[in-house]
Design a protein that fits this description.
Blueprint lengths: L1 H11 L1 H21 L3 H15 L2 H12 L5 H10 L3 H11 L1
Helix pairs in contact: 1-2, 2-3, 4-5
Length: about 100
Amino acid sequence: MTPMTGWLAGRFGRKQVFMTAIIGFTIASALCGAAQSLGQIVGFRLLQGAFGAALVPLSAGRADGRLSAGGTGPRHGHLGHGRDPGPIVARRSAAG
């Protein structure tokens, strides 16, 4: 899905694809929470992955479009700050 994101954004518009990805990811996440079987959770996680795959490149593209050429490096670094602590926090909370 990630390689298709650029093509979809060019064909339908970046904002439309981004909003569809956010709404689809949210609905798929809710369906994961409501799953009643292993088959359902696997299917809903696949759906969640399909919608979620578009979020990172579209977010990065949005950051690039809002900044001058010299400011993109720090912005991309800040985009990772929200994602990077997750595995650390999860490991510590599971350990104790």
